[in-house]
Design goal:
Layout lengths: L1 E4 L10 H6 L7 H14 L8 H7 L4 E7 L2 E7 L6 E2 L2 E2 L1 H20 L12 H13 L11 E5 L6 H16 L3 E4 L8 H12 L7 E5 L1 H6 L8 E4 L3 H11 L2 E4 L4 H14 L11 E5 L4 H14 L2 H4 L3 E4 L2 H22 L23 H5 L9 H20 L1 H10 L2 E5 L1 H16 L14 E5 L2
Parallel strand pairs: 6-7, 6-10, 7-8, 8-9, 10-11, 11-12, 13-14
Antiparallel strand pairs: 1-3, 2-3, 4-5
Helix pairs in contact: 2-4, 5-9, 6-7, 6-13, 10-15, 11-17, 15-16
Length: 453
């Protein structure tokens, strides 16, 4: 079965050189990357976080870029039938496919093929993030701050999922837009809830932004509510895109990835240059998740201290209060940026230290060499803890990391006895609550905690 589809969304013309990089070739990195991401997009709505299983199930799937004078077409060979209704591809999936094509082409031109900059201040990296978002037409006309980033786990229970929808509804009623990692669970729920709130308020130009990166989207298909999909080149630029585009953040229950995101943001906000910087941050969930947030709060207090705990507000079982806090926070963000003459569309003035921008490759050596010991430099400790959790996420869902673990064994994480005990307890709670992987099979840890003598 071969289906040809034409562009829909923000894709512009492809040059012959760009198209040649994506021609069918088993040795082409760009082609293989595009094929994996395209398959995940076509499987949108299917619950999975296993890229290998997805590829195995659809091993006869292929995709070709057909270049014509009037523009590019995509030829889908044996695509998943879930992407079609009565023989016609679902419009949202069609848009996501061409967003994927657009970003893979852009990545090859502006990220993957570029020599790393020696810019010690990180300005070059921030400009790369900006250009990627601008290329995707995510940087819109100036408007008042209204984008709420929602972080949380892809594997959450039914009660937590409904709560994310309830919060999204309250945000939508207050005419706030949603930005997430674009996957299932706590990334889908707020968008679904916001659609109802937006509809009641007759909000035009409703925005449901999904920010992802190649190895994540290949394992976790984007949800179909997303109407602006952007693929960033790596986790660090994806995280920076969240805090540059967003005006406030809500964090729902999640696993290692959610802990990584929280540590990333706290590490940035702890920087002296960001003192008194208004960035509304709310941790929230239903009453059934109260113990989850108490444990997260204890871990942050024990590792980063009270200064970090003061940067967020925990709200239990009160979606309306979450909506009010974010709406009130938008006014503070607007006043601050207006005074600083900073853009409402892209947060240029927030200082992000270079150690939070540099890509961390979760190899066995890099994971074992992370310095996980108490230190007066809590910002550096936040960066190191962020890397540890990032590596665990990679070991759980990223194909290259899963293969490396099969070959070389579990990641080894070692450090101070007390700190590692706290980390071990937190990670084990994620395992016990089925937050590491989607339910269906027993979780096999990709890491081993080692406590220094």
């Amino acid at each position: 079965m071969i289906v040809k589809i034409s562009p829909r969304g923000s894709l512009e013309q492809l040059s012959q050189i760009e198209a040649s990089r994506l021609q069918k070739n088993v040795n082409s990195t760009h082609y293989q990357l595009f094929r994996r991401c395209a398959l995940a997009v076509l499987c949108s709505g299917i619950e999975t976080d296993d890229a290998d299983a997805l590829m195995e199930k659809h091993k006869d799937f292929d995709i070709e870029v057909v270049v014509r004078e009037r523009g590019a077409q995509l030829a889908l060979i044996n695509p998943p039938q879930e992407a079609f209704v009565d023989g016609n591809i679902i419009v949202g999936i069609q848009e996501h496919l061409f967003s994927t094509l657009r970003d893979i082409v852009y990545l090859s031109d502006h990220y993957l093929d570029q020599v790393a900059s020696t810019d010690d201040e990180g300005h070059f990296i921030t400009n790369r993030v900006f250009r990627g978002l601008r290329n995707a037409k995510l940087i819109t006309d100036p408007i008042d701050p209204n984008i709420v980033v929602c972080w949380g786990g892809h594997s959450i229970n039914a009660v937590e999922y409904q709560y994310t929808r309830d919060v999204g509804y309250e945000l939508g009623l207050r005419e706030l837009n949603i930005c997430t990692g674009c996957g299932p669970g706590a990334m889908e729920g707020p968008m679904k809830g916001a659609t109802i709130g937006h509809a009641k308020q007759r909000v035009e130009n409703r925005r449901y932004i999904g920010l992802t990166e190649p190895s994540i989207i290949a394992a976790e298909p984007p949800n179909q509510i997303v109407n602006e999909l952007v693929i960033l080149p790596d986790i660090e630029k994806r995280l920076e895109a969240f805090v540059r585009v967003g005006h406030g953040i809500v964090i729902f229950p999640g696993g290692a990835g959610t802990a990584e995101e929280l540590l990333y943001l706290l590490g940035i906000l702890l920087d002296e240059k960001n003192r008194d910087y208004p960035f509304p941050l709310v941790l929230t969930g239903p009453k059934e998740s109260k113990a989850y947030f108490e444990q997260i709060d204890r871990f942050i207090g024990a590792t980063l201290g009270e200064q970090a705990q003061r940067l967020y507000t925990i709200v239990v079982d009160d979606p309306q209060q979450v909506g009010r806090l974010l709406k009130q926070g938008m006014a503070d963000v607007r006043a601050y940026r207006k005074k600083r003459e900073d853009s409402y569309r892209f947060n240029w003035s927030l200082h992000i230290p270079v150690e939070f921008q540099q890509p961390f490759e979760p190899t066995h050596d890099n994971m074992s060499q992370l310095d996980l010991h108490p230190t007066d430099d809590i910002q550096q400790l936040a960066a190191n803890l962020r890397c540890a959790f990032s590596g665990i996420v990679a070991g759980n869902v990223k194909q290259e990391s899963i293969l490396a673990i099969k070959k070389h064994g579990l990641y080894q994480l070692s450090g101070d006895i007390a700190l590692m005990e706290k980390m071990d307890v937190l990670l084990q709670s994620f395992v016990d609550q089925c937050r590491m992987k989607l339910p269906g099979s027993a979780y096999e840890p990709c890491y081993r905690i080692i406590k220094d003598d």
